[in-house]
Amino acid sequence: MINIKFRVNMKTLIVGMIALIFFLINYNSLKNYYNMTLPKYIPFRNNFEERLKTENLNAKENSQNPQDNTNTSEKLKLNAQAALLLDAENDRVLFEVNGYKKLPMASTTKIMTCIIALEKGKMDDVVNVSSYAASMPDVQLNIREGEQYYLKDLLYALMLESHNDVAVAIAEHIGGSVEGFATMMNDKARSLNCNNTNFVTPSGLDAEGHYTTARDLAVIASYAIKNKDFIAITNTASYQFKELKYGRTFSVTNKNKFLYMMDGAIGVKTGFTGKAGYCFVGAIKRPDRTLVSVVLGCGWPPNKNLKWTETKRLMTYGIENFEKKQIFEEKKFNPLYVEDGQRGYVGLKIEGDLNLLLGKDEKVHIEYNLPEYLTAPIFKGQQVGSAKYYIDGSLYTEIPIYTTEESKKIDFNFCLIKILKLWSLQYDKN
Questions:
Q1: Whether residue 407 lies in the annotated active site
Q2: pTM above the 0.90 mark?
Q3: Angle formed by the axes of helices 151-161 and 164-175, nearest 10°
Q4: What is the pLDDT of residues 340-350, one digit of tens each?
């Protein structure tokens, strides 16, 4: 019995040693065979780098327009302290003067007040009026302590006639207090990447630390007009409602004259305080575009109508000077070499849709960023590079480049299989 076991173990040991010797003898053959069948594409690496440099150089040269040195701000003369035009479909700034300067914004604040109430409350919520809300200064609906209103009715009063007492009543109902509601407003602003905005009041009355920028305010409005209830309220010409306990009746009328000044006008909100001056956020929707404009500090009494004319000038500029264009470039990439990979190279792909408003003088150039080679393991759908899209030298967006195949790392099993294949090929030749 012992002899049989010993013979079996010796047989296994001898077979193992023969296999090991066979593996070591054939390793160099395998290596040479593998390198011949899967070359490292060194010429391709150099080729790609040269083509990339040439492509980017040409793109940068093409992005410069020597025939037009006129500054855009000189084309559009405005009186507002800050003005901005935004493509509401992607929040790209099309034009701005002091668009990132922190300024008070008066009752345009109520855009955020309304959207928070719509998202956090219900239209049939019953709002109880506090003494603090009833004490707010003009502009007022003159609500009274102890009265009750549907939230929906107060939102119409808020946006059509900009009542400050209504703003506080809504804030206390939704946020528990003005301070609590201001926190909700600021949290929402941060979520929209509006980091140069700080809300203190729901009404927009002048307060220390209450400010925004034309850019942030435009982004907030761009977000708000995507809400169908917000649009329904701000586009209503007039509205009637009753107080719930005592039956007082009210009628409010829309003070936004811009709704009747341009085809496709859809809002949004006026504002005025002694510190902020006349302010207005406007929006128009056309079949091929949605634009949002902002003017802050657009005159003081008696220049009440200046905000309308400057808004119309901004919108007209956006309509006449920008066209919808698809700037995404379909591109085929050569495969990338994979170091230590069972698959010697992997394919690449890029997909995207960049259909946006582009100025007649704006130039686009693209920078493709890819490594010289990859190192296994590589997974299918793995991001390995990107295409950066620049508009007039400013980065607009970055689109990832993915692999279309996987390449596992070379291991013992892979090498053994290759050796067996090599051995079988040699055997067939003999």
A1: no
A2: no
A3: 140
A4: 888 989 999 99
